Structures are given as structure tokens and as C-alpha cells.
Amino acid sequence: MNKIIPSIVGAVLAISPVFSVLAQEGTPPTAANFCTRISRDIDQRIGQHMSEREAKLKNRRAERETKLEERREGRKDRLEVFRERRDERRDEHYTKLEARATTTAEKAAVVAFQQAIESAVSARKAAVDAANSAFKSGLDAAIASRKTAVDAAIATLKSSLDAAMAKAKSDCSSGVAPATAREAYRAAVEAARKKFQDDMKAAEKVRDTVKTLQDTRQAALKKTLDDFKVAVEKARQDLKAAFGR
Amino acid sequence: MDEKEKFETVLDEAIRLMEAGEDRVAILARFSDFQKELSEAFRIADRISFFGKDIKPDKALLEKIVREVNTVTQVPEKRFSYISSDSKGRRLLVNPLIQIHSFMNMQMKYVLPIVAVFVVAGGVLYMNYGGVSPQVAQNTQVTSKSAGTESAAEAGDTAAMKAAAPASTGNPDEIVDDIIASLAEEETILNDANADADFVAYDSALVGEFGQFSYE
Predict the structure, then answer these.
(1) Residue B149: count of CB within 10 angstroms of its CB
(2) What pLDDT shows up at residue A129?
(3) Chain B: nearest CA to A50, how far in angstroms?
């Protein structure tokens, strides 16, 4: 028993190259069966693959829309709450400032300070909202643009595959050798696949557009922040000067 | 579908195509996004196929392993052998059971009571100082108030932030500093929008699957 198994294994290993040679000779089984399989197997399988992906893609896009909207709404709510809280806080500060102002000059300085701060806050709110709005609409446009490009790429792929399939069926029914029909079909499918990949690469360039949108928004927000700080610092200096500090 | 699952799908498809007789170069070209991984998989398959014909453990390697395993004693009589002469194939199971039994008898009589004491003490501490305790909740509120606006901003809890803000003193410097400090919280909210950009390619992996099919 101890010697039987190694003997069998050795024999199989010894004759395995023969199997390979035999397998390589003649027409491969896949090529020989191509014309019998093309309608009931290959066509059906590819069709199912496409329709499944299309259904998933539809769901994924709906999911994206929902999630993106949730994020935007959540952020909008947080920003509103923040602004309301800060508005109340500034009112509290102004009240305390007014209480400290005893002279006419000090009272006037407090009014000026309040106006300067509120003006800066309003300008900042408007600039932030504008930057957010531009980013939002730009992003929506980029998403829509990519969707159009992707849908077009998928449509082209499907149409090319359908044409390749029709040609293969025609070849098979008109007596073309299965191996030849299969090779023509394979070449057409590979070309369609390559075209799809190229189309997708082009569609992915929308990321550059989005990056530009991000950079533009960041630059706008930074400028808004800097402008706000300058205005607030000036208001501080003016107020302190009026209070003699 | 994440990258791993995607690669598994691609690998399955690649193996199927390879078995169907498709050229490896063609397979690699077909799955251009996973060429590197597939090449590696093919390489490993070739190695296994080549070396698998005559698998013998390297003697030097075995000696090295034995040398480096600390538990192996130099005294042959004391070595645990999985295939000792009197073994009937049950020693693998019996020996660990004996060891566990011995450990329970010798060690656990000390270890178990100590562990039990720690568990009970931990439970008591948790019940007294955990988040559910009103006393601790009160303490936390006091702490957050003393920490000022910064800790509340980090937590993102606007209600806590409002409660934690110290009363205004009317000091111009403190007022302006407070206004400027609040910008950090606003920036945190605004920066969150940057992640929205990722949604542009939210369907990217799925779209890539359209081109991954077999026609064999």
C-alpha cells in the first residue's frame, strides 16, 4: 500500500505532458461548440450580465442621491444652528458692551463696533453661502455629466456586443467554420470592451473638474475668512481706542 | 462591491478562462485593472505547479525551525512527540487535555479568584462612575463648562456648546477673540462638504463590471 500511491502519482506525472499535447491538437472544444452555444448560452449569459449590472447601477445611483442629499441637509441644519447660536452670543456681547459704555463716545463706539461686526458677519454668511451653492451646483453638474458619459459608454458597449452577436449567429448559420466565427466574435467583443474602457477613462476625467470645484470653493472660503478677520480686528482696534485702551 | 470582492470575481473569471484555454496575455489584457494581482496569482500557480511535483521539506529549514522553537528541549526523552512509538493517534488530543487539566489544577486555583475579584471590582466601578450615573453626568457637565467652548466644539454637540459658553464679560478683546474662535467650528462644518466630491465616482466600481464578462 505504501508503494502503490507514489507509483500512481509518478505514473500520472509522467504521462501528464502527453495529455497536454493531445489537448492542444485539433480544434479546441470551446471553438467547436461555439455555434451550438452562442444562442442559448453565450447570448443569454452576456444579456443577463448586462441587465443585472444595469439594475445594480440604478440602485447605486439612487443610493448616491439619497446619501448626498442627507449629507447636504445635515450640514445645512448644523450651519443654521451654529449661526443662530452665534447670533445670540453676539447679542449677549453687545448688551454687556453697552452696559460698560458710560460716555457718549464710548456708546457711539459700541454702536459702530456692533455695526462693523454685523456687517462682517453678513458678508461672511453671504460669501460662504455663495461658495457652498457654487460647489453644490458644480458637483451636481459633474455628476450629471459623468452619468451621461457612463450611460453612453454602456449603450455603445451593448450595441457593439449585440452587433458582434448578430454577426456570429449569421456566420454560424451561413456555414462559416465555428473556429473562424468564434475568432471574429472574440475580436469584436475585445474591441467593444477596449472602447468601453477608453470611454470610462474619459468619463473619469470629471474628477479633475470636481477637484477644480473643491479648490475654487476652498480659495473662496479662505478669502472670506481672511476678510472677516481683518474686519473684526479693525473693529476691535476702533473699540479699544474709544475705550481708551 | 469592494476591491477585494471585485478581485475575487475577476480571479474566478480569470481561472475559468484559463481552464477554458484562453491565453494568459489575453486574460491579463481583459482585466487591465487587475493585471498586477493576476500576474502574481499566475506566478504563484506556476510555482506550486512546478514545485508541487516533488515536495520535500528542506532539511536545513527543518533544523532551523527546531533550533528556533524555544520549547524544544535538548533532552530527547523529554521531547513531546506527535508520533512516538507507543502513540495510537490519540496523543494529539489527550496531551493538551492533560496539560489543560494540570493548568486548571495548579494555576487556576490562584488565577480564577483574582480574575473574579477584578471583574466584580470593575462592575462596581462601572455602576458607580459609568455614563448612566446621574452624579457622573453632573460632574461631566461641570467639567465641560470649565473646559470652555473648545471641548464642546470637538464633540460637535451644539446644545452642550451653548451651555458651555462662559457668560460675556463685555471685554472687547474677549468678545473679538470669542468671535474669531467660533470660526473654527464653522470651518469644521464647511469642510465636511469636501467629502461630497467622492460621490461623483460613487458607482465607479460597479460601472467597471460592465466590461467584465466571459463569452466562452
Answers:
(1) 20
(2) 97
(3) 6
CB–CB of B203 and A235 under 8 A? Answer: no
> What's the ipTM?
0.74
d(CA A29, CA A41): 15
Please report whether residue A73 resides in a domain. yes
Question: Best mutation site among A75, A158, A182, A183 for testing chain B: the one with the most B CBs within 10 Å?
Answer: A75
Residue A218: which domain range? 35-242
Does any domain span residue A160?
yes
On average, the pLDDT of chain A sits at: 88
Residue contact B213–A113, C-beta within 8 A: no
Which of residues 25 through 54 in chain B touch A, CB cutoff 8 A?
A: 26, 29-30, 32, 53
Q: pLDDT band at residue A106, thresholds of 50, 70 and 90? A: very high
**Count of residues in chain A:** 245
Q: How many domains does chain A have?
A: 1
Taking the C-alpha atoms of residue A232 and residue A240, their distance in angstroms, rounded to an integer, is 12
Cell of residue A22, nine digits: 493531445
Q: Which residues of A33-71 are buried (b: 16+ CB within 10 A; e: fewer)?
A: ebbebbeeebbeebeebbeebeeebeebbeebeeebeee
Q: How far is B47 from chain A (nearest CA, A)?
A: 16
Q: Show residues of chain A in contact with B31, CB under 8 Å.
A: none
Are residues B175 and A211, on separate chains, in Cβ contact within 8 Å? Answer: no
Whether B200 and A207 lie within 8 Å, measured CB to CB? yes
Q: For residue range A20-46, what is the model confidence (pLDDT) as tens digits?
A: 433 434 455 566 688 888 877 888 888
Please name the member of A61, A68, A217 whose beta carbon is closest to the beta carbon of B203.
A61
pLDDT for res A56: 93
| Amino acid at residue number B83 | I
**Distance from chain centroid for Cα B5:** 17
pLDDT band at A134 (very low <50, low <70, confident <90, very high): very high
Higher local confidence (pLDDT), B70 or B182: B182
Look at residue A152 and tell me if it is in a domain. Answer: yes
Residue type present at position B78: K
Residue range A53-92, pLDDT digits in tens: 999 999 999 999 999 999 999 999 999 999 999 999 999 9
CA of A169 vs chain B CAs: smallest distance (Å): 14
Chain A with chain B: Cβ pairs closer than 8 A: 154
Query: What confidence score (pLDDT) does residue A213 get?
Result: 96
Distance (Å, rounded) from C-alpha B206 to C-alpha A60? 8
